[in-house]
Amino acid sequence: MKVNLLKRFTLLVVAVMLFSFSVSTVSFAGDVTSAPSFIPSFPMLAGDNVMIMWIPVPGAVKYKVYLDGKEIGETPAPPFTTPSPTDAGTYKYTLAGVDAAGEEGPQSSAGTLAIVKMVKPTGLMHRFLGEVLNLRWDASSAASIYDVFRSETKDGDDYKLIGSISENKFTDSDVMYNADFYGKTFYYYVIAIDKFNKRSPKSEIHEVAIVKPEEEVAARNMKFNLRIQRTKQTKFLKPMGGGTDVNGPSSPHFLSSGELVFADNKGSITVLDKYGDQARVIGKRGLEESMYQSPISMSMSPDGDFYIVDYRTSSLMKFDSGEKWVWTKKTRITKKSDNIGIEGDDKWPNKDYKVSRPRGIEYYDGKLYVSDMETGAVNIYNAEDGEFIDFFKNKETGKVHRIGAITDIMITKDGSKMLVSNPVARLIPVFSPETGEKLFGIGYSTNFVGAFVGITGITETPDGNIAVADSEMSSVQIFSAEDGTYLHHIGDKKAIPDPRSFDQRPFVRAFQKPTVIEYDSEGKLYIFVYSAKGFIVRENIGDAIWDISTDEPEGEVPAGLLEGYELDKKPK
């Protein structure tokens, strides 16, 4: 009996030993029994390479290194250096110790490395502040510093580094707007550099031509290259016959009936007939879900549906083509993510994001683009049900555009460009709705022509260009939709905004504080004049454009064009 018990005990001990040995051979092969640990901040970029540092482990005579699960090399000891991946993305590195017998130990936890593609700086522009040249450009994501280069020949190889700066602006105090530089032209480009010294492609070359004012013209008659499209007033729309004044319209649109509809800050969506009388009001003002309190902007779909931003309740509203209420949606969407970034600013708050100040709205291709004055972002909603889809972002970088105190949004009829009005910055940046790439900006100017002070309205002209109303400059300016180049002024006058610059005022007739603008189906331009509380309607007098410096039209003047119409005379 004792012999059997001893035999059984012996067999049990042997089984336990065999089990323990088998477990150890599976879990801890060879002499390397622990996984290496990365030193903090590694892997890291070092120029065009990736450097990896780790804490050595007992028993290892060398280490194998893996990238996304594939072996890329081995080394007897840290550090390990390997060429950096070229494509943007997140890469995972692991490593394992190997003993003298070639047995590989357990792998380390993954060390991640994010490769951000360095995109070239865009939007390089300049302005002279006094006599000093100031350069600005759009910030590049991941850029830590910018190198600025200058040359006096555009295509030469003599560009010189004139400065390195952490901000996306640079003052070139060696180039001045004065007699010493008249007639000279300078060329600039910028390169972005990240914290690992990785360089972007160079920006587009920007030209700065310093033009000498005409010597024979007094300062008050300086040539500004101002070009005028002559127009005449054909109608004045002001609610009469029991109607009320229009206080502050926004987002005017024409219905198929020819009626004009807009959001009025007095608290209504107003429809005016062709005589300027108030035909009706869409929706009602009140506290119920189907009512608005403070409609601040609106847009229409091609099918005639109305989309409204109610500023006071931070809501979107839809009325169908029959002007019946469909839904009301709060814009206070919540999206928490540590990965949301701002274009040009990587410090997006890591907290719930709430839309609190919706302002402009534009319908396009089943989506609603809504500007948020609180964050400067543009948010995209489904036009069918009002549900949030995404933030408007640069799809190449994945960063959300933060544009500033944006108001109006306009998408061209062909869908190729989205314009965002930023009155505070006095600029209108233009983006691709498809890719989110910034294409160019409108309002970059070295003089008063083509610049803004108080952007109040934007619309598309019948020939596909861009019209911008500026209440402070008493003007409506036309810009190319291709690249934002100033083309001419609509109407008869442009005033200089700064009273101190009155003596530089080009002498043509002005509108009095024009605000919102829109074209009807016949190509006539409707301009709301705030001081008169009504819309003036203007049509072109022929197609000839006048050059204000000569007071002569460009191109042939049709017979009878000037009959009954007296041109402004140049002051002597």
Give the key terms.
572 residues; Immunoglobulin-like; mainly beta; disordered C terminus; nine-stranded mixed β-sheet; five-stranded antiparallel β-sheet; disordered N terminus; Thrombin, subunit H
Explain what you see.
- The chain is mostly beta strands and 572 residues long.
- Among the domains are: 26-115, Immunoglobulins (Immunoglobulin-like); 122-212, Immunoglobulin-like (Sandwich); 218-238 and 446-539, Beta Barrel (Thrombin, subunit H), CATH 2.40.10.
- It is built from one helix and 44 strands.
- The strands form eleven sheets. Strands 18, 37, 38, 39, 40, 41, 42, 43 and 44 form a nine-stranded mixed sheet that branches. Strands 5, 6, 8, 9 and 10 form a five-stranded antiparallel sheet that branches.
- A hairpin with a 2-residue loop joins strand 11 and strand 12.
- The N and C termini lie far apart (135 Å).
- 33% of the residues are buried.
- The model is unreliable at 1-29, 214-223, 336-352, 493-509 and 563-572 (pLDDT under 50).
